[in-house]
Amino acid sequence: MNKKPFLIVLGLALVFEGAQCQEREVFVALGSVAVLPCVDETSAVSHPTAVYWSRIVGNALKTVWRREKSGLEFRPVRNPPRANCPVPNFGKADYSLHIAEITFEDGGKYICEVEGKTRMTKLINLRVVKASLSPAVVVEGSRIEATCHVSPGTQSIKFNWKRNGSSASRMSRASISSVSQRDAGTWTCQVSYNGRVVEATTSLEVKGIIIPQDEFSVVYADVGSSVSLPCVFTDGLIPNTVIWNRTSTTSNAHVPLPASFEASAGPSASAAIQRVEDGDEGMYTCSGMMSGLNGERIKVQRKMELVVSRVLRSSSSSGNGPVTLTCNLSNSDQITSYEWLRVTYGPNDTQTVTSVQKTKSFRIQESTEKNAGEWVCRYYRNEELLGNATYHLLVMGAVKSENSSSGNKTALVMGLGFMFLVIFLILFQMYRNYRRKRKILLYPAMETIVHQAATEREQRERCRGKMAEACVGEPKTVCV
Ligand SMILES: *[C@@H]1O[C@H](CO)[C@@H](O)[C@H](O)[C@H]1NC(C)=O
Ligand SMILES: *[C@@H]1O[C@H](CO)[C@@H](O)[C@H](O)[C@H]1NC(C)=O
Ligand SMILES: *[C@@H]1O[C@H](CO)[C@@H](O)[C@H](O)[C@H]1NC(C)=O
Ligand SMILES: *[C@@H]1O[C@H](CO)[C@@H](O)[C@H](O)[C@H]1NC(C)=O
Ligand SMILES: *[C@@H]1O[C@H](CO)[C@@H](O)[C@H](O)[C@H]1NC(C)=O
């Protein structure tokens, strides 16, 4: 049985020099199915009597798959067998060997030998491509190394590392000193040889904050609206270590968080401002501690700038004159265009939005009842709608068209009545004070006399109620 491979080893040098035999390179990614070609293109070997597939290991040949003249098949003892040479293909003169779940160790030289009327021998060089990342699970900000191995190695190949579709390196080894969430996902090593490309993939898991993905982002909110500041951690977060901070955009100094700021606990440490006020703008930072591979503590954070938008009103004249509305943002660096809209409400609260002008400021010719109601300024960054600011134009005599309920009106009337009462009382008191001051100014001496007389009368009354000795020590006072 072992006679045949032994003969092949002896005859290798001779056979491979012959025209029949060319060495074929086959590149295959780790884990995939390799097909080692052995096709009788010229159909010279009709009616094969035997097919031998063996592998050169050191100086010896090892049978991988074999079919004898008798039709008996031999394959290495392995369950389930990975190597197979599909017999039905023999009819098409195809004796290729299929190896499933290629391992790195499968790389090497293989020999296909077919015996029929003539003999055909093929030598195949199988190269296995393996992509690996070290480590494959990291906390963002850490360093990783990507390596693309080919077994057995060769000079004539080109490498291209691709991360998330875009080229990352043209070397077989690449490293990233500070990994970000954008590096997570599939990494692909492309190996090119003779115009053919084989891809091996691996994946990277980056622990940290998944939402938002970027270190820095901008959030827009209208005054009076609510806004959410996202901050979602992957697992690995050390509990109770999430801190939200706020710094002023201008001075970088710490400023307190707004009154209606609320942060949730746990991996989703997202925060919300229930009602955005003028002045809430600034840089908000969400930071938390993650446990690294060796249990070390690694700080991860996201910065979000809150940009507050509002409509500023300026009117040159009072009454029903023109009004200019300006869309104002605490930071308008990213804004490329504005759009003013008129919002009207029909029956059943149907909203109608009409675009009126594409400018930052908008001039309403007259503040009459016709123009009362909702005006909205939308702001964009290159066609992308970032947010809007709403203004309710109040017009005298148009109060009816406002959406205030009767309960609100009663409160308003009572409030106004109370205010007038308070003002009246204050004015009345001021008038009395004024009267008194005037008297004093007119008769300053009289005030002193009146005061003295009053004091003397008081003392006399006190003395009368007491025993005589009690007054001895008071020479100025005469008890009558
Ligand atoms: C891949 O890239 C796209 C566009 O650059 C990005 O939107 C996406 O988040 C990236 N995917 C990952 C997993 O980082
Ligand atoms: C948040 O503020 C605290 C106290 O001022 C400080 O210790 C911490 O480093 C700050 N965190 C960030 C991310 O700025
Ligand atoms: C509008 O906002 C900017 C900040 O972006 C501010 O400096 C400016 O004073 C505001 N404009 C008006 C008219 O208040
Ligand atoms: C308002 O809603 C009612 C009931 O849903 C419907 O019958 C009516 O046609 C609606 N009116 C308008 C103007 O859409
Ligand atoms: C303004 O923004 C709010 C919240 O994003 C949205 O609900 C509303 O429909 C917008 N209004 C207009 C007129 O675009």
UniProtKB/TrEMBL annotation:
GO cellular component, one term: external side of plasma membrane
Protein name in UniProt: Lymphocyte activation gene 3 protein-like
Lineage: Eukaryota, Metazoa, Chordata, Craniata, Vertebrata
MF annotations from Gene Ontology: MHC class II protein binding; protein tyrosine kinase binding
GO terms classed as biological process: interleukin-15-mediated signaling pathway; positive regulation of ERK1 and ERK2 cascade; T cell activation
The organism's place on the tree of life at top rank: Eukaryota
SUPFAM superfamilies membership: Immunoglobulin (SSF48726)
Protein source organism: Labeo rohita
Alphabetical list of InterPro entries matching this protein: Ig-like_dom, Ig-like_dom_sf, Ig-like_fold, Ig_sub, Ig_sub2, Ig_V-set
